[in-house]
Every structure is written in structure tokens, then in C-alpha cells.
Amino acid sequence: MAGRIESRLAELGITLPVPAAPVANYVPFTVLAGGTLVVVSGQVPMREGKVAFTGKLGEVIDIETGQQAAQLCLINVLAQLRAAVGDLDRVTRVARLGGFIAAGPGFTQHAQVMNGASDLAVAVFGEAGRHARSTIGVPSLPMDAAVEVEGMFEVAA
């Protein structure tokens, strides 16, 4: 039987994928503080083994498409989180999200792009999905991804 968060994901039409393997020398997540803090490494907008959104915001990607990319990144973060904790109902708080937006030099709407991930976090976890956040524009990301999102989560022991 699906838990509360898995049921909410289903209501939103979201099926979490199999977590992607790291593409370099890092682990996909680290569990700290006696199992009550989980840090998930940055996830790009992978779908079925391929980066679904490539290019730079303000050049080949518009804000709405960037928001979709950020949302897909968060879906991949949640897949890693579920691998780390087993049951997403254990998540008591989305503590922090970090967003990296590949953008051209004149692009300044990074925060609006990252709202794709932030809005989904609140839709999934409710008030516990409200989080601290950093959003940074960068000249490029791995595999030409348009967006990358990382997360930190408080989890019940």
C-alpha cells in the first residue's frame, strides 16, 4: 500500500524513476545526523537515461521550459531520497534546495526557473515542503543540462 507522499505523487501524475547512477566520483546521497538528515547530490533533468532539457536559459530554453526542467530535476532528487530512506513519509521537512541554472549572460530570471522545483516540493509535502533555497546561474552544466537541483531533507529516525 502506498504511503501518503507516494499517493500524493500519484495524484499529481508523477511516477518516480529508478534513481540514476552517478556520472562521476561522488555518491547520490549521504545520510547524516543519526539518519535524520539526508543530502541528495545534484540531479539533472534525466528521463529514461537521457537529459530531457539541454541548452541555456534565455538562449534556446524559455522560462516555462526551464521550470519543467527544474521540476524533473526535483522528481529525480525525490527518487534518490526514496532510495536513501525507503519511505518518503519519513520526510519531515524539505530543509533546502539548491538550483543551478545554465543561462546566457543576459538572463536574470533564475529564481522563476527554480520555482518549478520549489512549487513541486510544496505540492508534494505541503507546508513541510517550504524550504530555504539558493539559485545560481552558471555558464554550463554536465551533459549540457539546462538545470540541476540538489536537496537537503530532515527525516524522522
From TrEMBL:
Pfam families (alphabetical): YjgF_endoribonc
Superkingdom of source: Bacteria
Signal peptide start-end: none
Domain Endoribonuclease L-PSP/chorismate mutase-like: 6-147
InterPro entries hit by this protein: Endoribo_LPSP/chorism_mut-like, RutC-like_sf
PANTHER family: ENDORIBONUCLEASE L-PSP_CHORISMATE MUTASE-LIKE DOMAIN-CONTAINING PROTEIN, ENDORIBONUCLEASE-RELATED
Protein's name according to its UniProt entry: Endoribonuclease L-PSP/chorismate mutase-like domain-containing protein
Organism: Teichococcus rhizosphaerae
